[in-house]
Structures are given as C-alpha cells and as structure tokens.
Amino acid sequence: MTHELHDITLVVNGRSHPIRVEARRTLADAIREECGLTGTHLGCEHGVCGACTVLLDDQPVRACLMFAVQADGRAIRTVEGLAHGDTLSPLQKAFIEQHALQCGYCTPGFLMLGTAILEQNPDIGDEELIEILSSNLCRCTGYANILRAVRAAAAAMREEGVA
Amino acid sequence: MNAGRLVGRDVARVEDAALIRGRGRFVDDIAPAGLVHVAFLRSPHAHARILRIDVAVARALPGVHAVLLLDDLRPHLTDTRLVVALPSPSYRLDLHRPVLAETEVVHVGEALAVVIAESRYLAEDALALIEVEYEPLPAVADCDNALAPDAPPAHSWASSNLAAEMTVAYGDVEAVFAATPHRFAETLHIHRGGSHSMECRGVVALHDVVEDRLTVWSSTQTPHTAKRLICDLLGMDETRLRVVTPDLGGGFGPKLIFYPEEVVVALAARLLGRPVKWIEDRQEHFVSTTQERDQTWRVELATDAEGHILGVRGDLVHDHGAWTARGVNVPQGAVAAMPLAYVVPAFRMTIRAAVTNKVPVTPVRGAGQPQGVFAMERLLDRAARELGLDRAEIRRRNLVSAEHMPYATPLKTRGGIPVTLDSGDYPRCQQMALDEIGWAGFAERQRVALAEGRYIGIGVANYVEGTGRGPFEHVSVRVEPSGRIMVATGAAAMGQSTRTMLAQIVAEQLGANMANVEVITGDTAAAPIGIGGSNSRQAVLAGSSAHVAALKVREKVLAIAGEMLEVAMGDLEIEDKVVRVKGAPGHSVTLASIARAAAGQPGFVIPGGRGPGLAASEEVVIDAMAYANGTAAAEVEVDIETGAVTITRLVFSHDCGRALHPRIVDGQLMGGIAHGIGNALYEHMRFDDQAQPISTTLADYLLVTATEMPPVRILHMHSPTPLNPLGIKGVGEAGVIPIPAAIAAAVEDALSPFDAHVCRVPLSPVDVIAMIDPVPEGSA
C-alpha cells in the first residue's frame, strides 16, 4: 500500500505553505498539521457539524470533505486570519459580547460561516440567516446568542461602514 | 441578592480571548515532536466469541510501530479490567470492562486491538489488515427482552442479564393504593441519546525518559480519577504521572468516565518511548463513548378525589449496556428525581438494570433526571385529565411550597445522605412560567386555532434537581512574588466558564482585577486532590472553596499590609494590585511586596503574625446537595399531515439561588434547553434487533440546529441556599431536565381531538402520525 506524495501550496490567510501530502489527506488535516493552524476543528469528519468550516476563495466549505490537493494554490481563510493584530473582527467581538461561545469548539466554524454571510449579504434577513446558520452544529449555546452575535456584527459593520 | 464588584455581574469571560482567535488548546492541538498515532480495532459484532486474531500483516506495514493485543499489554498491567463502579449494594453481576477485549466482544465498538503508526491514516490502513475470526453469538438488543427468562446472556459466562436491582421506598404504599379508587397507571418508554460534545474524546501521552515521568492530556472531566486509575493499572508511583485536562470541546457527562483508551495510550507511550495520540472520530464516538439510552417505566399514581398525591409506585427497567462503566447512578438518579418537586407521602420504585450488548450507559447532561421528571409529569397529566382538573392546578396542589422549606424528604442520596429540599418556592416558580406563556387564556386560543384547522397545544413540567454533589473540590489561592494571583483547582473546565467563575470569586476579595488572576483547572500537578466535573457541582463546590480560600488570603494580605503601613487592617482596601489606606490611596503597598514579605528573609520575622506564604488551600466540605428547581412551559403546533412538531413558545422559570454570572447562567440553561428539545423530538440512538447501531452519523442522529430553536424566555428566582457561603445552586444540567416532559404534554394537548396519549420520547413524526391515525396505511 503506497501513497504517492504531491507537492502543493496551501495559501492560508495570505501566507504560502509549501507542503507535501498524500492525495487522500484532507484539507482540514493539512491545515491543522502541515500548516500548524489548529484553530480549525474537526467535529464529525463527515460534513455535518461544520466545525471545520473555512473559506475557500471566500466561500465557506467543509475542510473535512475536501482533499488538500484540491485546494492547491487557492485562497484559504481560517479563524486565525480574522483578527488584524490585536483588533478582533466585528464578528469576533460580537461573539464575545453576546456570549455566543461556551466551550469554543464549534466557534471557529461558526465564525467563518458568519464571516461569509456578512461579506456576501450584510443585510440578510432573519429567516435566511437562521437557515444558513443551521448548517453548523453547536451543543453548548442553543444558538440564540450566535444568531444575536451575527446580527450585532452586521449592525456594527453598517455603522462603521465596514460592509 | 446584591451583586458584588464582580460576583453576580456579567463580567467578560477569561476563556474567550484565546478561543475566539482559534488559539485554544484542545487535546488534538497537542502535538509533541516525534508524535505517533493510534487507531483502535473495534468489534463489528454486538456479541461474538473471538476465535483468532492475526496481526502479522498489519505489523509488517511500513510506518506501523506496533499492533498490540491484550496479551501484549498484560505484562505491563496490574489488572486487565477497569474497576470503576461506584459503590452500591445493588450489583448482581461484576461487569468490569477489559482494557481490550480478548475472548469475547459484547458490543459494537468494543476495542480489541490497538495500532500505533506514523500517522492516523497509516494506523487505519493497518486496522484493515488485521484478521479477526469471530463466532457471532446471540445479541441482547432490548432492555425489556434482556430480562425475559429465555433471553440469551449478553455475556456468555453470565447466568442472567440482571446487572443490578434495588428498591427505593418509603411510606405504606400498598395501603395508600388500596384505599383510593383514583389510581392512574402508565407504561412509558423513555429514550435518551448521547452527549455529542462537538469535540469527541482524545488522549495524548508523553513519556519523559529523562525524568521518567508520564504526562497524559486527556479529554476527561475527572483528571484526578484518571490519574489514580492509570497509576493503579500501570503500577506507577503517583509522582511519575501528571494528568491534564486541556480545553474541552464540551463534556456533558460521558467525559467523566475513565476509558480503556486512556490507559492504553498511556502505556503505549511508555512502551514505545514516543509521544502517542489517539483522537476519537465521530463514528467511534457513537459506538465507544458512553451514552444514555432506553428506560421502560411501569408506574402508577394514587390520588384523592381532589388530585392530592397519595402515593407513587412502579418499576423501572434500565438499559445498562454491556459493562458497568460508572454504576447504577443513572436509574437511581431518575427515580430520585421523580417525586422530588411534589409532596409524595408514599413511594416505591423498583429498579432493574438490564445488561444489553450495547455501549455502556453512564450519565449524560441531566443524568436520569429528565426521565424521572417525564414519568412523574406524565402521571400528573393523566390524573388531571381523568379527575377533570387543570393540569397546572393539580401540580399547584402538590408542589412543595415555600412554607415547607426546608423540606426533609424520606429519600436519601446514593451516598446515604438525607434529601432535604433546602430553599425555594416551587408554586410561585410555576406561576411565573404560566403567567408568561399565557396559560390561563390558552384554552380559548386553542379553540380559535382548531376552528382554523390548526392543532396547538400547551404543556407544563416541573423539576427539582440535586446539584453540587459533594464532598468537596480543592481550590488553592496564592499571591505570587510578582503580585499575580494563582488559583489552582481539581475542578475541570469543559466549556461552562469554570475559569471565569473562579477568577470572579477570587478577584472579588483580592483587588477585583480578573486579569491579575490566573486559574489552572484540571491539572493533577497543580491540585493535589480533586473530584472534577459532574452533577452540576463545580460552581457550588469549587466556588465555595475558592471563596473561603480567597477570604483567608485576603485576611493575611491585610494583616501584613497593616503592619507594613502601620495602620489597622480595617482601614485598608485592596484595589487591583495594591493595598491602600481607605481615603488615602497614595498610602499603599503592592501585593507583590506583601507576597515578598510573606515569603520571608533568613533571620527576619515575617510581618503580620500569620505565618509564611500568602496562600490558602481549601476543600470546603458540603455533603448535602443544594436543590434547584424550575418549570418549563411549552406551546407547540402539530402538523397533522406530516407529524411535524413546531415549538412556538418556550418559557423556563427557575431558581438556582444566587446567580454568579447571569449571562453564563442563561447560556447554560439555553444549551440544556436545546439538548432537551433534541431529547423530546429528534435524538434517537437506534439499534437493530441484533444490537447493531444504525444511527452512527450526525446525519442519522439529529442534533438540534438553529432552525429548530424556538423563542425561549427565561425567568429567574433567586432563593439562596443556606448550604454554601455563596448561596448558589448548580445550573449546568437544569435546562434539559423538564423539556421532554413539557413538550410531550404540549403535543398530547395539541392532539387532544384525537385522544392522543403520549407515552414515549423522542417523538418522531412517525410517532406523532401513529397517534393521529393509530393504524397507518400500509402497515401490516
């Protein structure tokens, strides 16, 4: 049983990581182990829980359902790239202010999903927002505060003109 | 109750700064140099004899370091079994599970071999190369059938499937039932599923050959227990082992259990001389992490004509799973919770725990209490219906009231400690929920809806929860020479803000700057003893110890500062990192210099007259549990075409005594409520008749998502308990407890035009349709 190795470059949060992986290596494992960015978490490894959500060319994807070789050269964003230095993103701030995280395990996935929502549709209505947020699972919060946080971040971004 | 400077206020959580940036340190984030990876070979059979295991091909795979069976581990173990059962005279079988299965497997997912390889990918490749010859044996898939006289044994050596039996009783039950014509019997099937923390389990072990010390990072709620068991099993001196609970991605019960994987990974690190990691995947979680499952309650309620409870009796059959991984505490907790909110003069419940060929059952958030509450509340709804009483009114007539407090029940806890309800006003709490949801006007709303062809219903359920199980939790508080305040505890954080809670309580007494407090949880190197996380206990026990320790350190700080500043202690205050004279803030001394003075100098007297060091260690002993209470009221709409249940409103009124951090209390409750909705409508760990699990993905086993969450209104009462100095009761499990009962009642009410009778949870759409149309089309 031999597995050919592939030289690829993962561009994560603007930084290039030249890595050598088997074709079967998942994007999530490569981000966590080869790139050393452990903020992306694995909750189910079958594409349901969304804890591993990252942005690939600005679209939220399940990093457990992609192979690293499929992401070669594409722009990947993870939770580690959300803050600028010490300044948290509006969504990160809102998560803290709204107590939208408890154990924090699902949080990176929700932050990436929420970031995509706010970038693509900052004026999203509640019904659609809830529908999209239902693509990720959280066992601690009961979701209400996550919903509040995304709404609050949207409002803050409108106020600051970020969106 | 008045809030302090920090306690009782929504201060910022100390956990968030790292977690929000993806800088948490969960067990899978720990990757020492030279790490190798583990995968376990798990039984595909629910019950089978192991005839042969051939690992030769797997061992030969490049990149594989070892493939180990129990026989390979045996020379290094003092015992090949995990003897972990809580004490109880009720056991009828010794069911200590093996470190690895050797001659027989008794549930799907039971581990029988371990592969250690350069990567998890390779380790799983090697699993596929292990040849096992099994002889399948009859499997026990159902707890009721398990106890039938002709049932096959779940363990081939066992004479029966009765794991344990016990009776909880007081009062003259037979006389009570004989004397009243008002008797109401129900047979209830209550299922609970797994905990499904978003993070599965994991273990990393690192053997330091220089000092011959082993460090084990485990996703455990009970690191001190894990340390004791690993020391026992590996014959290790305690000074050579450290067990650390890193950040936990949720616990919810099953992570309090000690698992075979923990000792196997620890041993593998010693045998290989390499750091070893095992991370459970979700499919393994479904078949190897403990869960709660099935209970069948055959129960009967006796009342007088006005609905006053005279007695409760019945029996409970509980699915124990294949091994005793904790004890009989789940059915015991279920039965104990059943009568607790009400005045029940006579009570007798028999518990039989049945062995099945399924993963062991141990507590999941709520630990049996949702089931006990479900049974009691279903009986009360039945009695109300048959007696022509309002469902809330029959409860009001029976709830323990404020005038009863403290109310000494005839019950005892599993440790023999009397159950005395310490505080609260249960009828008032119920009334708050009823008022908020508009109980009084509901009948009219229901009539209007029905006229429009909409089926809406309302339900209410009460609970009383034993929280803060003792005897103690260790907390030490130390002011270091830097002026930093170090807090260490045996409590283990699993996402419920434990570090924030302790930092709040300690900083309240020592300068009110939480940023100056460092809290270490779940590390056996930092706390000499500890119990860990379970039973909604850590705020109560660790919080109390932290409070008392902080007061002692405060006293010492002020005594030394008083001598240094030559003023009376009473004239001093601690602000941030300094102690200063009230009204003369310039006249001050830093915590750092006080700590240095307390550390002593050779030949000089330590100021303050209270001995060296600026530290205190506390294990405040609180044996009696603090009883929290609450009421859930739910309104639902049922689509009679599809069987879909929509929860339209949910009100939760509760009393957890003083709230240390109102926002965290709400957060804990909301998480529990979501879990309870799952237990009521969605979460079902399914097995076929050969005990094969058939819901082993999160696509088959449904967790509540954002779309299923109804609007929730939480209402608070604050009756401080006299049992601890902070007046607090636990709240980590409360949310889940009454929800299935309240939703079941609401569904039954919505379907009252069909004379529906809800006697099970979860209620799938299929179950709902079956109540509307008892003989659905196409059924044989």
UniProtKB/TrEMBL annotation, chain A:
It comes from the Bacteria. The keyword Oxidoreductase applies. Coiled coil: none annotated. Residues 6-82 form the 2Fe-2S ferredoxin-type domain. Keywords: 2Fe-2S, Iron, Iron-sulfur, Metal-binding, Oxidoreductase. InterPro entries: 2Fe-2S-bd (IPR002888), 2Fe-2S-bd_dom_sf (IPR036884), 2Fe-2S_ferredoxin-like_sf (IPR036010), 2Fe-2S_ferredoxin-type (IPR001041), 2Fe2S_fd_BS (IPR006058), Beta-grasp_dom_sf (IPR012675), Diverse_Oxidoreductases (IPR051452). This is (2Fe-2S)-binding protein.
From TrEMBL, chain B:
Pfam families: Ald_Xan_dh_C, MoCoBD_1, MoCoBD_2. Residues 21-138 form the Aldehyde oxidase/xanthine dehydrogenase a/b hammerhead domain. Keywords: Molybdenum, Oxidoreductase. InterPro entries: Ald_Oxase/Xan_DH_a/b (IPR000674), Ald_Oxase/Xan_DH_a/b_sf (IPR036856), Ald_Oxase/xanthine_DH-like (IPR016208), AldOxase/xan_DH_MoCoBD1 (IPR008274), AldOxase/xan_DH_MoCoBD2 (IPR046867), AldOxase/xan_DH_Mopterin-bd_sf (IPR037165). Coiled coil: none annotated. This is Xanthine dehydrogenase family protein molybdopterin-binding subunit.
